[in-house]
Amino acid sequence: MKQNQGALSVLYDGKSAPHIAAKGYSEVADLIIARAKEEGLLIHKDEQLFNYLQQMDIGQKIPPTMYVVIAELIAFSYVLRGKFPDSWQ
Fold it and tell me: Which CATH number fits the domain that encloses residue 27?
């Protein structure tokens, strides 16, 4: 990873609003990405989204204005893993 490149993770448990679970730059970003790969999670590269979300604190809930964007990414990650809502079958 290039120096000063960042990464963050968003956690959604299905019960409350998604929130920032981890964020960091350089070596910390490398660890976040490595852990996501180990867990088989979607790694989405979007500089504008990152720049917006990285301003938030760890544990801070995603604002309602971002729900659709985050929901689309979560849904996409489920489809990539072959998981579909019961209503789609």
Answer: 3.40.1690.10
- Whether 1 maps to a domain, the answer reads no
Q: Which pTM value belongs to this model?
A: 0.82
Res. 37: pLDDT tops 90: yes
What does the H/E/C string look like for 9-63? EEECCCCCCCEEEEEEECHHHHHHHHHHHHHCCCCCCCHHHHHHHCCCCCCCECC
Residue 10 lies in a domain: yes
Q: What is the mean pLDDT of the chain?
A: 90
- Tokens standing for 25? 């730059």
Token reading at 34 = 């490595």
CA angle (24 as vertex; 19, 26 as ends), nearest 5: 155
Number of domains in the chain: 1
